[in-house]
Amino acid sequence: MRCGTGPAPLRPYDGIPHIRWWRTFMEYGNGIVGDMCIHMFDTVRWMLGLSWPTKVSSTGGIFVQKEGKSNITDTQTAVF
What we know:
single chain; alpha+beta
């Protein structure tokens, strides 16, 4: 039964995503960069009177917590 997962693959239940760790799993979010970056970027863009970028490039990986359960990048570099 797929209850509330939408198109995301099912994960074995371990409770971790429900204690504010949902951002660290691709099945539920897009990481802290995808979650918070847009808010911070938009604030700076608005304060400086800039328009939206025309190109964005990003790269990253799991470089810090390699033994953790998270499956989303913990390190990322983005160029706008």
